[in-house]
Specification:
Layout (H helix, E strand, L loop, with lengths): L6 H34 L3 H17 L1 H11 L1 H18 L8 H19 L2 H12 L2 H33 L2 H21 L11 H7 L16 H8 L3 H31 L4 H7 L1 H23 L4 H15 L12 H18 L2 H8 L5 H12 L2 H16 L3 H21 L11
InterPro entries: MFS (IPR011701), MFS_dom (IPR020846), MFS_Na/Anion_cotransporter (IPR050382), MFS_trans_sf (IPR036259), Sugar_P_transporter (IPR000849)
Keywords: Cell membrane, Membrane, Transmembrane, Transmembrane helix
Membrane topology: Multi-pass membrane protein
Length: 430
Protein backbone atom coordinates (compact mmCIF):
# COMPACT_ATOMS: atom_id res chain seq x y z
CA UNK A 1 0.00 0.00 0.00
CA UNK A 2 1.40 3.39 -1.01
CA UNK A 3 1.68 5.89 1.85
CA UNK A 4 -0.19 9.13 1.30
CA UNK A 5 1.88 11.05 3.85
CA UNK A 6 1.37 11.96 7.49
CA UNK A 7 1.60 15.74 7.61
CA UNK A 8 -2.01 15.95 8.79
CA UNK A 9 -1.14 13.94 11.90
CA UNK A 10 1.48 16.52 12.87
CA UNK A 11 -1.16 19.22 12.58
CA UNK A 12 -3.54 17.13 14.71
CA UNK A 13 -0.81 16.67 17.33
CA UNK A 14 -0.45 20.44 17.49
CA UNK A 15 -4.22 20.84 17.93
CA UNK A 16 -4.06 18.32 20.77
CA UNK A 17 -1.23 20.21 22.51
CA UNK A 18 -2.93 23.59 22.09
CA UNK A 19 -6.20 22.20 23.47
CA UNK A 20 -4.27 20.57 26.33
CA UNK A 21 -2.88 23.98 27.37
CA UNK A 22 -6.26 25.59 26.76
CA UNK A 23 -7.98 23.35 29.30
CA UNK A 24 -5.10 23.34 31.76
CA UNK A 25 -5.32 27.15 31.87
CA UNK A 26 -9.05 26.90 32.54
CA UNK A 27 -8.39 24.51 35.45
CA UNK A 28 -5.71 26.56 37.22
CA UNK A 29 -8.22 28.58 39.22
CA UNK A 30 -10.22 25.54 40.32
CA UNK A 31 -7.14 23.78 41.72
CA UNK A 32 -5.94 26.95 43.41
CA UNK A 33 -9.44 27.85 44.65
CA UNK A 34 -9.45 26.14 48.10
CA UNK A 35 -6.26 27.97 49.15
CA UNK A 36 -6.79 31.12 47.10
CA UNK A 37 -10.32 31.74 48.40
CA UNK A 38 -9.15 31.42 52.01
CA UNK A 39 -6.18 33.74 51.43
CA UNK A 40 -8.21 36.40 49.63
CA UNK A 41 -11.44 36.15 51.63
CA UNK A 42 -13.74 34.94 48.83
CA UNK A 43 -16.94 33.06 49.78
CA UNK A 44 -18.62 30.26 47.78
CA UNK A 45 -21.08 32.39 45.82
CA UNK A 46 -18.41 34.96 44.95
CA UNK A 47 -16.10 32.14 43.89
CA UNK A 48 -18.84 30.79 41.64
CA UNK A 49 -19.19 34.22 40.04
CA UNK A 50 -15.42 34.37 39.46
CA UNK A 51 -15.51 30.88 37.93
CA UNK A 52 -18.27 32.08 35.57
CA UNK A 53 -16.23 35.06 34.27
CA UNK A 54 -14.50 32.83 31.74
CA UNK A 55 -17.85 31.66 30.41
CA UNK A 56 -19.33 35.15 29.95
CA UNK A 57 -16.45 36.18 27.71
CA UNK A 58 -16.07 32.82 25.98
CA UNK A 59 -19.71 32.78 24.96
CA UNK A 60 -19.77 36.43 23.89
CA UNK A 61 -16.81 36.05 21.53
CA UNK A 62 -17.96 32.90 19.70
CA UNK A 63 -19.78 34.56 16.80
CA UNK A 64 -17.21 37.33 16.17
CA UNK A 65 -14.44 34.78 16.75
CA UNK A 66 -15.97 32.48 14.14
CA UNK A 67 -16.13 35.38 11.70
CA UNK A 68 -12.44 36.14 12.34
CA UNK A 69 -11.58 32.52 11.56
CA UNK A 70 -13.48 32.68 8.28
CA UNK A 71 -11.99 36.06 7.39
CA UNK A 72 -8.32 35.66 8.35
CA UNK A 73 -7.83 31.90 8.53
CA UNK A 74 -7.69 29.58 11.54
CA UNK A 75 -3.88 29.22 11.86
CA UNK A 76 -3.19 32.95 12.29
CA UNK A 77 -6.17 33.73 14.53
CA UNK A 78 -5.44 30.68 16.70
CA UNK A 79 -1.79 31.71 17.17
CA UNK A 80 -2.81 35.16 18.40
CA UNK A 81 -5.30 33.51 20.77
CA UNK A 82 -2.64 31.27 22.35
CA UNK A 83 -0.34 34.22 23.01
CA UNK A 84 -3.11 36.32 24.58
CA UNK A 85 -4.67 33.66 26.80
CA UNK A 86 -1.24 32.63 28.08
CA UNK A 87 -0.40 36.23 29.02
CA UNK A 88 -3.71 36.72 30.84
CA UNK A 89 -3.28 33.39 32.68
CA UNK A 90 0.15 34.42 33.98
CA UNK A 91 -1.21 37.78 35.15
CA UNK A 92 -3.66 36.10 37.55
CA UNK A 93 -0.77 35.34 39.88
CA UNK A 94 -0.48 39.07 40.63
CA UNK A 95 -3.87 39.01 42.41
CA UNK A 96 -2.01 37.73 45.50
CA UNK A 97 -1.40 41.37 46.42
CA UNK A 98 -5.13 42.14 46.62
CA UNK A 99 -7.95 40.96 48.88
CA UNK A 100 -11.72 41.08 49.32
CA UNK A 101 -13.71 42.90 46.63
CA UNK A 102 -10.56 44.09 44.86
CA UNK A 103 -9.30 40.52 44.49
CA UNK A 104 -12.70 39.35 43.25
CA UNK A 105 -12.83 42.16 40.67
CA UNK A 106 -9.29 41.50 39.40
CA UNK A 107 -9.79 37.76 39.19
CA UNK A 108 -13.10 38.21 37.38
CA UNK A 109 -11.52 40.65 34.90
CA UNK A 110 -8.53 38.42 34.15
CA UNK A 111 -10.65 35.27 33.83
CA UNK A 112 -12.91 37.26 31.51
CA UNK A 113 -9.92 38.17 29.34
CA UNK A 114 -8.78 34.54 29.25
CA UNK A 115 -12.27 33.62 28.02
CA UNK A 116 -12.13 36.27 25.30
CA UNK A 117 -8.75 35.03 24.09
CA UNK A 118 -9.72 31.34 24.12
CA UNK A 119 -12.97 31.97 22.25
CA UNK A 120 -11.76 31.08 18.72
CA UNK A 121 -9.94 27.91 19.83
CA UNK A 122 -12.55 25.18 19.40
CA UNK A 123 -14.18 26.63 16.26
CA UNK A 124 -10.59 26.86 15.01
CA UNK A 125 -10.00 23.20 15.89
CA UNK A 126 -13.11 22.19 13.95
CA UNK A 127 -12.16 24.29 10.95
CA UNK A 128 -8.60 22.94 10.87
CA UNK A 129 -9.83 19.34 11.17
CA UNK A 130 -12.33 19.94 8.34
CA UNK A 131 -9.53 21.41 6.22
CA UNK A 132 -6.91 18.72 6.95
CA UNK A 133 -8.92 15.46 7.22
CA UNK A 134 -11.26 13.54 4.92
CA UNK A 135 -14.76 12.80 6.20
CA UNK A 136 -13.95 9.22 7.19
CA UNK A 137 -11.19 10.39 9.59
CA UNK A 138 -12.88 13.39 11.15
CA UNK A 139 -14.61 11.54 13.98
CA UNK A 140 -11.32 10.18 15.29
CA UNK A 141 -9.47 13.46 14.67
CA UNK A 142 -12.15 15.48 16.47
CA UNK A 143 -12.24 13.00 19.35
CA UNK A 144 -8.46 13.23 19.73
CA UNK A 145 -8.32 17.02 20.05
CA UNK A 146 -11.45 17.02 22.22
CA UNK A 147 -9.98 14.36 24.54
CA UNK A 148 -7.14 16.75 25.37
CA UNK A 149 -9.47 18.36 27.92
CA UNK A 150 -9.16 15.19 30.03
CA UNK A 151 -5.47 14.64 29.41
CA UNK A 152 -4.87 18.21 30.58
CA UNK A 153 -5.93 17.08 34.05
CA UNK A 154 -3.88 13.87 33.81
CA UNK A 155 -0.71 15.78 32.97
CA UNK A 156 -1.09 19.07 34.78
CA UNK A 157 -3.27 18.47 37.87
CA UNK A 158 -0.50 16.70 39.83
CA UNK A 159 2.06 19.30 38.68
CA UNK A 160 -0.21 22.18 39.61
CA UNK A 161 -1.04 20.61 42.98
CA UNK A 162 2.69 20.25 43.69
CA UNK A 163 3.38 23.88 42.66
CA UNK A 164 0.56 25.20 44.85
CA UNK A 165 1.70 23.12 47.83
CA UNK A 166 5.41 23.85 47.44
CA UNK A 167 5.55 27.40 46.10
CA UNK A 168 2.13 28.98 46.63
CA UNK A 169 -0.90 29.36 44.38
CA UNK A 170 0.29 32.47 42.42
CA UNK A 171 3.07 30.45 40.79
CA UNK A 172 0.70 27.99 39.15
CA UNK A 173 -0.64 30.82 36.97
CA UNK A 174 2.86 32.01 36.06
CA UNK A 175 3.93 28.46 35.19
CA UNK A 176 0.96 27.80 32.89
CA UNK A 177 1.37 31.16 31.17
CA UNK A 178 5.01 30.35 30.38
CA UNK A 179 4.08 26.92 29.01
CA UNK A 180 1.49 28.51 26.74
CA UNK A 181 4.00 30.95 25.30
CA UNK A 182 6.29 28.03 24.44
CA UNK A 183 3.43 26.27 22.65
CA UNK A 184 2.74 29.44 20.62
CA UNK A 185 6.32 29.38 19.29
CA UNK A 186 5.91 25.76 18.13
CA UNK A 187 2.46 26.44 16.63
CA UNK A 188 3.86 29.22 14.43
CA UNK A 189 6.31 26.73 12.89
CA UNK A 190 3.94 23.77 12.43
CA UNK A 191 0.38 24.86 11.59
CA UNK A 192 -0.80 26.45 8.34
CA UNK A 193 -3.43 25.79 5.66
CA UNK A 194 -2.88 22.69 3.48
CA UNK A 195 -2.33 24.87 0.42
CA UNK A 196 0.63 26.54 2.15
CA UNK A 197 2.35 23.48 3.61
CA UNK A 198 5.65 22.72 1.87
CA UNK A 199 5.79 19.03 2.87
CA UNK A 200 2.26 18.03 1.83
CA UNK A 201 2.39 15.42 -0.94
CA UNK A 202 -0.05 15.29 -3.84
CA UNK A 203 -1.33 11.93 -2.56
CA UNK A 204 -2.10 13.30 0.90
CA UNK A 205 -3.63 16.43 -0.62
CA UNK A 206 -5.96 14.23 -2.70
CA UNK A 207 -6.91 12.19 0.38
CA UNK A 208 -7.68 15.34 2.38
CA UNK A 209 -9.89 16.60 -0.45
CA UNK A 210 -12.30 13.66 0.01
CA UNK A 211 -15.30 15.48 1.44
CA UNK A 212 -13.28 18.27 3.01
CA UNK A 213 -14.33 21.90 2.58
CA UNK A 214 -11.67 24.19 1.11
CA UNK A 215 -9.14 25.35 3.69
CA UNK A 216 -8.85 28.87 2.37
CA UNK A 217 -11.99 30.94 3.05
CA UNK A 218 -11.02 33.25 0.22
CA UNK A 219 -11.81 30.46 -2.29
CA UNK A 220 -15.49 30.67 -1.40
CA UNK A 221 -17.92 33.50 -2.03
CA UNK A 222 -18.91 35.12 1.28
CA UNK A 223 -22.44 34.74 2.60
CA UNK A 224 -24.12 37.68 4.40
CA UNK A 225 -24.10 37.01 8.14
CA UNK A 226 -27.85 37.58 8.48
CA UNK A 227 -28.67 34.94 5.87
CA UNK A 228 -26.23 32.47 7.40
CA UNK A 229 -27.59 33.03 10.91
CA UNK A 230 -31.16 32.37 9.80
CA UNK A 231 -30.14 28.91 8.62
CA UNK A 232 -27.76 28.14 11.47
CA UNK A 233 -30.30 29.06 14.15
CA UNK A 234 -33.32 27.25 12.67
CA UNK A 235 -32.00 23.96 11.30
CA UNK A 236 -33.39 21.14 13.45
CA UNK A 237 -30.20 19.09 13.59
CA UNK A 238 -28.12 22.11 14.58
CA UNK A 239 -30.59 23.23 17.26
CA UNK A 240 -30.61 19.74 18.78
CA UNK A 241 -26.83 19.66 18.62
CA UNK A 242 -26.55 23.07 20.31
CA UNK A 243 -28.80 21.96 23.18
CA UNK A 244 -27.04 18.61 23.59
CA UNK A 245 -23.67 20.36 23.71
CA UNK A 246 -24.93 22.68 26.46
CA UNK A 247 -25.90 19.76 28.69
CA UNK A 248 -22.70 17.81 27.89
CA UNK A 249 -20.57 20.87 28.67
CA UNK A 250 -22.25 21.18 32.08
CA UNK A 251 -20.35 18.04 33.10
CA UNK A 252 -17.13 19.53 31.74
CA UNK A 253 -17.46 22.69 33.83
CA UNK A 254 -18.37 20.84 36.99
CA UNK A 255 -15.07 19.01 36.55
CA UNK A 256 -13.13 22.17 35.65
CA UNK A 257 -14.49 24.36 38.45
CA UNK A 258 -16.05 22.68 41.48
CA UNK A 259 -14.68 19.13 41.35
CA UNK A 260 -11.44 19.94 43.25
CA UNK A 261 -13.48 21.86 45.83
CA UNK A 262 -15.76 18.82 46.16
CA UNK A 263 -12.75 16.61 46.82
CA UNK A 264 -11.20 18.96 49.40
CA UNK A 265 -14.32 20.08 51.27
CA UNK A 266 -16.77 17.19 50.86
CA UNK A 267 -14.27 14.31 50.76
CA UNK A 268 -11.61 15.99 52.95
CA UNK A 269 -8.61 15.40 50.68
CA UNK A 270 -5.53 17.61 50.69
CA UNK A 271 -4.74 19.84 47.69
CA UNK A 272 -2.01 17.45 46.54
CA UNK A 273 -4.24 14.40 46.99
CA UNK A 274 -7.10 16.14 45.16
CA UNK A 275 -4.79 16.76 42.20
CA UNK A 276 -3.78 13.09 42.15
CA UNK A 277 -7.37 11.90 42.68
CA UNK A 278 -8.47 13.93 39.64
CA UNK A 279 -6.13 11.99 37.39
CA UNK A 280 -8.10 8.72 37.24
CA UNK A 281 -11.45 10.22 36.09
CA UNK A 282 -9.49 12.35 33.62
CA UNK A 283 -7.71 9.30 32.20
CA UNK A 284 -11.09 7.58 31.83
CA UNK A 285 -12.50 10.64 30.09
CA UNK A 286 -9.51 10.70 27.74
CA UNK A 287 -9.86 6.99 26.90
CA UNK A 288 -13.62 7.38 26.43
CA UNK A 289 -13.12 10.39 24.19
CA UNK A 290 -10.75 8.56 21.87
CA UNK A 291 -12.89 5.39 21.85
CA UNK A 292 -16.01 7.40 21.05
CA UNK A 293 -14.41 8.82 17.92
CA UNK A 294 -12.92 5.49 16.86
CA UNK A 295 -16.27 3.74 17.42
CA UNK A 296 -18.10 6.38 15.40
CA UNK A 297 -15.69 6.19 12.44
CA UNK A 298 -15.78 2.36 12.61
CA UNK A 299 -19.56 2.49 12.23
CA UNK A 300 -19.14 4.74 9.19
CA UNK A 301 -16.69 2.32 7.61
CA UNK A 302 -19.11 -0.54 8.27
CA UNK A 303 -21.74 1.24 6.19
CA UNK A 304 -23.78 3.02 8.88
CA UNK A 305 -25.16 6.43 8.02
CA UNK A 306 -23.55 9.48 9.58
CA UNK A 307 -26.71 9.88 11.66
CA UNK A 308 -26.36 6.43 13.25
CA UNK A 309 -22.57 6.57 13.49
CA UNK A 310 -22.59 9.82 15.45
CA UNK A 311 -25.81 9.50 17.48
CA UNK A 312 -25.29 5.99 18.88
CA UNK A 313 -21.97 6.74 20.65
CA UNK A 314 -23.24 10.14 21.84
CA UNK A 315 -26.40 8.78 23.45
CA UNK A 316 -24.70 5.64 24.83
CA UNK A 317 -21.88 7.62 26.41
CA UNK A 318 -24.14 10.11 28.13
CA UNK A 319 -26.26 7.31 29.60
CA UNK A 320 -23.07 5.94 31.17
CA UNK A 321 -22.36 9.44 32.51
CA UNK A 322 -25.43 9.14 34.76
CA UNK A 323 -23.22 7.11 37.09
CA UNK A 324 -22.05 10.39 38.65
CA UNK A 325 -25.24 10.25 40.71
CA UNK A 326 -23.86 7.20 42.52
CA UNK A 327 -21.45 9.45 44.44
CA UNK A 328 -24.41 10.53 46.59
CA UNK A 329 -24.96 6.97 47.79
CA UNK A 330 -21.46 5.70 48.56
CA UNK A 331 -19.13 6.52 51.44
CA UNK A 332 -15.69 5.27 50.49
CA UNK A 333 -13.28 7.32 48.41
CA UNK A 334 -12.69 4.27 46.19
CA UNK A 335 -16.38 4.09 45.24
CA UNK A 336 -16.50 7.83 44.59
CA UNK A 337 -13.50 7.37 42.31
CA UNK A 338 -15.26 4.53 40.49
CA UNK A 339 -18.47 6.51 39.95
CA UNK A 340 -16.64 9.65 38.81
CA UNK A 341 -14.40 7.64 36.50
CA UNK A 342 -17.36 5.89 34.87
CA UNK A 343 -19.15 9.22 34.47
CA UNK A 344 -16.25 10.90 32.74
CA UNK A 345 -15.56 7.84 30.58
CA UNK A 346 -19.16 8.05 29.37
CA UNK A 347 -18.95 11.79 28.88
CA UNK A 348 -15.82 11.25 26.80
CA UNK A 349 -17.54 8.67 24.59
CA UNK A 350 -20.51 10.97 24.09
CA UNK A 351 -18.58 14.15 23.33
CA UNK A 352 -18.78 13.93 19.54
CA UNK A 353 -20.35 17.32 18.99
CA UNK A 354 -17.34 18.71 17.13
CA UNK A 355 -17.26 15.71 14.81
CA UNK A 356 -20.91 16.36 13.97
CA UNK A 357 -20.09 20.02 13.34
CA UNK A 358 -17.33 19.00 10.92
CA UNK A 359 -19.93 16.84 9.12
CA UNK A 360 -22.73 19.39 8.88
CA UNK A 361 -21.16 22.88 8.94
CA UNK A 362 -21.76 24.86 5.73
CA UNK A 363 -18.57 25.21 3.69
CA UNK A 364 -19.14 28.93 3.36
CA UNK A 365 -19.62 29.54 7.10
CA UNK A 366 -17.51 26.93 8.89
CA UNK A 367 -16.07 29.33 11.45
CA UNK A 368 -19.40 31.06 12.12
CA UNK A 369 -21.31 27.79 12.58
CA UNK A 370 -18.62 26.46 14.91
CA UNK A 371 -18.75 29.70 16.86
CA UNK A 372 -22.52 29.47 17.35
CA UNK A 373 -22.24 25.83 18.40
CA UNK A 374 -19.53 26.67 20.92
CA UNK A 375 -21.49 29.68 22.17
CA UNK A 376 -24.49 27.53 23.04
CA UNK A 377 -22.36 24.78 24.55
CA UNK A 378 -20.28 27.07 26.67
CA UNK A 379 -23.25 28.93 28.07
CA UNK A 380 -22.81 26.14 30.60
CA UNK A 381 -19.54 27.82 31.61
CA UNK A 382 -21.63 30.76 32.87
CA UNK A 383 -24.58 28.93 34.37
CA UNK A 384 -22.91 25.88 35.93
CA UNK A 385 -20.45 27.61 38.32
CA UNK A 386 -23.01 30.16 39.55
CA UNK A 387 -25.82 27.62 40.06
CA UNK A 388 -23.49 25.25 41.90
CA UNK A 389 -22.14 28.10 44.04
CA UNK A 390 -25.70 29.14 44.95
CA UNK A 391 -26.76 25.55 45.75
CA UNK A 392 -23.71 25.08 47.97
CA UNK A 393 -24.31 28.36 49.79
CA UNK A 394 -27.94 27.38 50.50
CA UNK A 395 -27.55 23.66 51.22
CA UNK A 396 -23.90 23.32 52.25
CA UNK A 397 -23.77 19.97 50.42
CA UNK A 398 -22.88 18.61 46.98
CA UNK A 399 -25.78 16.07 46.92
CA UNK A 400 -28.14 18.29 44.93
CA UNK A 401 -25.24 19.47 42.76
CA UNK A 402 -24.45 15.94 41.59
CA UNK A 403 -28.16 15.26 40.98
CA UNK A 404 -28.35 18.35 38.75
CA UNK A 405 -25.25 17.28 36.81
CA UNK A 406 -26.73 13.81 36.26
CA UNK A 407 -29.98 15.43 35.08
CA UNK A 408 -28.03 17.35 32.45
CA UNK A 409 -26.47 14.10 31.19
CA UNK A 410 -29.96 12.64 30.74
CA UNK A 411 -31.20 15.81 29.00
CA UNK A 412 -28.36 15.53 26.49
CA UNK A 413 -29.53 12.03 25.55
CA UNK A 414 -33.04 13.34 24.89
CA UNK A 415 -31.65 16.09 22.64
CA UNK A 416 -29.50 13.67 20.63
CA UNK A 417 -32.23 11.06 20.18
CA UNK A 418 -35.40 13.14 19.92
CA UNK A 419 -34.43 16.63 18.75
CA UNK A 420 -31.52 16.19 16.32
CA UNK A 421 -32.51 15.15 12.80
CA UNK A 422 -30.39 13.66 10.02
CA UNK A 423 -26.67 14.42 10.04
CA UNK A 424 -25.75 15.70 6.58
CA UNK A 425 -23.87 18.69 5.15
CA UNK A 426 -25.87 21.95 5.20
CA UNK A 427 -25.35 24.18 2.19
CA UNK A 428 -25.94 27.93 2.07
CA UNK A 429 -27.35 29.03 -1.28
CA UNK A 430 -27.22 32.48 -2.83
Amino acid sequence: MISTGRVRYGVLAMLFVATLINYADRATLSLAAPVLSADLGIDKLALGVVFSAFGWAYVAVQVPGGWLLDRFGAPRVYLAAIVLWSAFTAMQGAVVWASGSTAITLLFALRFLVGLAEGPSFPGNARIVAAWFPARERGTASAIFNSAQYFATVLFAPIMGWIIHGFGWPWVFVFMGAVGMGVAVIWARVVCDPADHPRLTDAERALIAEGAPPADPATLAPVPMGRALRVLLTDRTLVGLYLAQFFITTLTYFFLTWFPVYLVEERHLSIVDAGLFSVVPAVCGFVGGVLGGVWSDWLLRRGASATVARKVPMASGMLIALSILGCNYVTSDAMVLLCMSAAFFGKGVGALGWAVMADVAPRRAGGLSGGIFNMFGNSAAIITPIVIGYVLKVTGSFDLVLALVAGCALASVVCVVAVMGRITRIELTD
